[in-house]
Amino acid sequence: MFDAKIYYENFLCESFQLPDRPLVGRHGDPAGLADTDHFTQDNINQIRAGIAYAICIRSNVLVNVVNVNYKLIDDSFTKLLARALSIKTLADATSVVTDTKTETEKYIHMINGAWRNSKTDLPITDKII
After folding, report:
1. Cβ(122)–Cβ(19) under 8 Å?
2. pTM of this prediction?
3. Which residue from 33, 40, 84, 129 could staple onto 52, CB 3.0 to 4.6 Å apart?
């Protein structure tokens, strides 16, 4: 059974995990937002802020760590950020999280595909962000 609270918490934890740092656990993000208990309509402003910040982190990691061309992801992540900043319901939040994860995975898989056709060091894994 799908649990939107856990989905949200995992999304934030994954987003705050940088490649050279261990996985961020519950309450492990700087604002303490990665917590299923915060995923309530009463906390919609914090949810909105957490998701928006996570989108910025993912975009930054894709550009600066995974080496995805900024121009390639700018439009999609700008739209995701705009959607995050206008979240009004928990359903909106879940939708933005799903779409952000999908976009992130798309670019990681694209880079992995390019890696498989090259002679560079290591592939990028889905665990980066």
Report:
1. no
2. 0.81
3. 84
- Residue 26 is assigned to a structural domain of this protein: yes
- From 63, 51, 68, select the one nearest 16 (Cα to Cα): 51
CA distance 84 to 78: 10
- The residue segments making up the domain with residue 31 are 4-116
Q: Name the pLDDT band for 7 (thresholds 50, 70, 90).
A: very high
pLDDT in tens, 14-48: 888 766 566 676 666 778 888 899 999 999 999 99
Tell me, yes or no, whether 123 lies in a domain: no
Question: What is the maximal distance between C-alpha atoms in the chain?
Answer: 51
Q: How many domains in the chain?
A: 1
Beta strands in the chain (DSSP E): none
Tokens of 13: 């934890």
